[in-house]
């Protein structure tokens, strides 16, 4: 299977801090690739580097065979990459409808059909359609953030810790929706919740101290208690 | 009653002129995080260019359009060559825009000479109406109407168009707007140009209101505009009109009733607002 996204020995600085010190991984089309690792390992920075928000100082980021690491963020997004940031990035004073409209690249029949599909997937967004995004609950904000990244026909979604701070029942709902989106889109998921990561993920990469240190099929990690304990601190 | 009405009308007209200057300033700060101390210079250039075009062509409206075009062009040049290299660095922004303010003021003297220029309203806007004992000066009503019209037009664009939506979203989270595939730098330039055009419009309208224009007028009004931006809430467009009206009215009434405190009134107003609402009347927390 061909690699849709490829990072080759990527290094990123934030100010004077050398956060990513050699990240390499491949994301195969149609799969969910999960980035795992302890807090501060560099998972979020990896996604931000792919999006050009913290540009790489060394190494290469390729999307569909094209180098994208020197492009500005908006051009990377226009290539077909949707981003759901860790803090959800909701425009608090815009309504749910306006948050969606900012993201919509067009307003044709296809986009409207996609919007209906998304609203069926996240009925809460329909309920709060005219309410400011800032008034939504944590789970609803997460749904809005995912919906906004999914409204355009993006080939790849980068989702950063969608379960963070959410009640278990909401995590389940978010997980179901990602499972459904997986049918049409390649996904890179950063996730601390191993149950969620292992349920959704096809492949994994473990990031430690800014480097990719382990990778493989998700089943390998499920079966390897020592690896989980060593890098993730869970049994 | 007549005094009250006249002071209110005067305050509203002054408020609208400050609003035209402050509105661009607040959007530029909110969206671009740029402290533009040269904004007053664009205001003064609008006044001079518009007054000169009016004197040359004999048409007040061509003068207004000329001032707006001057603002758009100067805004584009300023954003591209002065502001762009210092995005994200407030100290450099303050230094370079203060320098630009001085350059713009001095250039006015180079082009139009060091003396102040007189500016008169067109004949159809001269004079006043009398309603009972109240005298309503036509030109002040004109300024108020233009200010309201600009407010409503910009508010319509912000609320009902995609570009307006992007600007509002950009004020809240620039990074996310870019991550949604929108070229925020193009939006930056557009907002800067429109802000500069509004300042230039304010400048050309001020001419006949005060009777004379001079090269330092930009700095005088820019201080009031900064007070308005702080009171209204940085980045808030509706906040800027409300604060501008408050500043205009307080200046007008204080100058009449407590002239010794007139200059301090706006500062006091800002201090009071900052104590009770540090984010400004319409600003977002944090």
TrEMBL record, chain A:
It holds the Pfam family ABC_tran. Keywords: Amino-acid transport, ATP-binding, Nucleotide-binding, Transport. Residues 5-234 form the ABC transporter domain. The keyword Transport applies. One of its GO terms (molecular function) is ATP hydrolysis activity. The keyword Plastid does not apply. GO terms for biological process: L-amino acid transport. InterPro entries: AAA+_ATPase, ABC_transporter-like_ATP-bd, ABC_transporter-like_CS, BCAA_Transport_ATP-bd_LivF, P-loop_NTPase. PANTHER family: ABC TRANSPORTER ATP-BINDING PROTEIN (PTHR43820:SF2), HIGH-AFFINITY BRANCHED-CHAIN AMINO ACID TRANSPORT ATP-BINDING PROTEIN LIVF (PTHR43820). Belongs to the ABC transporter superfamily. This is Amino acid/amide ABC transporter ATP-binding protein 2, HAAT family. It comes from Mesobacillus persicus.
TrEMBL record, chain B:
The keyword Signal does not apply. GO terms for cellular component: plasma membrane. Keywords: Amino-acid transport, Cell membrane, Membrane, Transmembrane, Transmembrane helix, Transport. Pfam families: BPD_transp_2. Coiled coil: none annotated. It comes from the Bacteria. It is found in: Cell membrane. The chain crosses the membrane at residues 7-32, 52-74, 94-114, 134-158, 187-209, 221-249, 256-276. One of its GO terms (molecular function) is transmembrane transporter activity. Belongs to the binding-protein-dependent transport system permease family. LivHM subfamily. This is Amino acid/amide ABC transporter membrane protein 1, HAAT family.
């Amino acid at each position: 299977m061909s690699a849709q996204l490829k990072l080759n020995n990527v290094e990123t600085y934030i100010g004077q801090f050398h956060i990513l010190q050699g990240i390499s991984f491949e994301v195969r089309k149609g799969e969910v690739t999960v980035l795992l690792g302890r807090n501060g390992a560099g998972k979020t920075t990896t996604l931000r580097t792919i999006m050009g928000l913290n540009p790489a100082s060394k190494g290469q980021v390729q999307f569909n065979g094209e180098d994208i690491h020197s492009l500005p963020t908006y051009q990377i997004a226009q290539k077909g990459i949707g981003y759901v940031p860790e803090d959800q990035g909701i425009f608090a004073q815009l309504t749910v409808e306006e948050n969606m409209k900012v993201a919509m690249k067009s307003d044709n029949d296809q986009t409207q059909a996609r919007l209906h599909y998304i609203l069926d997937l996240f009925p809460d967004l329909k309920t709060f359609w005219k309410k400011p995004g800032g008034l939504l609950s944590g789970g609803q904000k997460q749904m809005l953030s995912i919906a906004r990244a999914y409204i355009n026909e993006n080939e790849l979604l980068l989702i950063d810790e969608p379960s963070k701070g959410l009640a278990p029942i909401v995590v389940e709902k978010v997980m179901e929706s990602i499972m459904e989106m997986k049918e049409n889109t390649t996904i890179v998921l950063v996730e601390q919740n191993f149950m969620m990561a292992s349920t959704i993920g096809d492949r994994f990469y473990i990031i430690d101290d800014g480097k990719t240190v382990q990778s493989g099929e998700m089943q390998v990690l499920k079966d390897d208690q020592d690896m989980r304990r060593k890098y993730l601190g869970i049994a | 009653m007549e005094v009250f009405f006249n002071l209110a009308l005067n305050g509203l007209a002054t408020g609208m002129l400050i609003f035209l200057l402050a509105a661009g300033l607040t959007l530029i700060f909110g969206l671009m995080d740029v402290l533009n101390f040269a904004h007053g210079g664009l205001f003064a250039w609008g006044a001079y260019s518009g007054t000169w075009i009016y004197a040359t062509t004999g048409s007040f409206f061509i003068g207004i359009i000329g001032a707006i075009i001057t603002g758009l062009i100067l805004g584009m040049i300023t954003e591209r060559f002065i502001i762009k290299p210092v995005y994200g660095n407030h100290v450099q922004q303050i230094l370079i825009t203060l320098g630009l303010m001085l350059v713009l003021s001095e250039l006015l003297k180079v082009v139009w000479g060091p003396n102040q220029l007189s500016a008169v309203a067109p004949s159809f806007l001269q004079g006043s109406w009398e309603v009972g004992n109240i005298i309503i000066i036509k030109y002040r009503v004109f300024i108020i109407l233009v200010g309201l019209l600009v407010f409503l037009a910009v508010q319509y664009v912000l609320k009902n168009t995609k570009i307006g939506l992007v600007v509002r979203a950009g004020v809240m989270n620039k990074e996310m707007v870019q991550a949604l595939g929108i070229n925020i730098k193009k939006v930056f330039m557009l907002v800067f140009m429109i802000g500069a055009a509004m300042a230039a419009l304010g400048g050309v309208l001020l001419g006949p209101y005060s009777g004379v224009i001079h090269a330092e007028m930009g700095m005088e009004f820019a201080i009031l505009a900064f007070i308005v931006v702080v009171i209204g809430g940085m980045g808030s467009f509706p906040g800027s009109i409300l604060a501008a009206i408050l500043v205009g009215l307080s200046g007008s009434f204080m100058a009449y009733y407590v002239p010794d405190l007139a200059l301090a009134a706006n500062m006091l107003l800002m201090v009071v607002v900052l104590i009770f609402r540090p984010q400004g009347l319409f600003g977002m927390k944090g």
